[in-house]
Amino acid sequence: MLKRWLPLLFFVALGSLLFVGIRLSETRDPNAIPSPLIDKSLPAFELPTLHQPDRRIRSSELKGAPFLLNVWASWCPECRVEHPLIEQLARSGTVRVVGFNYKDEPEDALRWLQQFGDPYAQILVDRDGRVGIDLGVYAAPENFLIDADGIVRFKHVGALTPAVIQREILPRLKAMTP
What is the end-to-end Cα distance of the chain in Å, rounded? Predict the structure, then answer.
């Protein structure tokens, strides 16, 4: 008699495991990829700026106030999706937004900014992607929230959304201000 019920019990147990797995995955943010940089210093780098290629900025020069490091590129379709939010955030004065132009041609990046607007306090250029490797960048867009001491406090992979800004970025910014 047990032989008759064994396949049904196995099927119910397997179905229950799948159901629990699906429910757990629904509660997690699919863009929440853990970063080994969280609560660590931003890696040291020196990169040229987009508007003045002869000028170089060191990561240490970005300290002093919290900032959002926005990884973007002209070839990135999702960057177009998030760009109005980046502009809105920069315009609000809530946080300084630093652009990180990733694996892009400078002419294409400048044309893109001319078309869509330039909300950035500065734009760093990582043309070969070497600094991006140190940051753990998967692809554009990505965003890093960095405190005044240069400590990475949050990373978001993919386009920012109003929900991510409200739920993740603004509360962390509020906690950073004395």
Answer: 70
CA 147, CA 34: separation in Å to the nearest integer?
18
Q: What is the pLDDT of residues 71-87, one digit of tens each?
A: 999 999 999 999 999 99
In this structure, are residues 81 and 67 in contact, taking their beta carbons and an 8 Å threshold? no
Q: What is the pLDDT of residues 8-59, one digit of tens each?
A: 656 655 655 655 556 554 445 554 556 788 999 999 999 999 999 999 999 9
| Rounded Cα gap, residues 158 and 30, in angstroms | 10
Where do the H-state alpha helices sit in 34-161?
77-92, 106-116, 130-135
In Å, what is the CA distance from 115 to each residue of 9, 74, 139, 174? 61, 10, 22, 32
How many other CB atoms are found less than 10 A from the CB of residue 123? 24
Contact 98, 62 (CB under 8 A): yes
Q: What is the pTM of this model?
A: 0.81
* Tokens 């609560």 belong to residue: 39
- Residue 43 carries which DSSP code? P
Reported in sequence order, the residue ranges of 67-178 that DSSP labels E, i.e. its strands, are 67-72, 96-102, 122-126, 142-146, 152-157
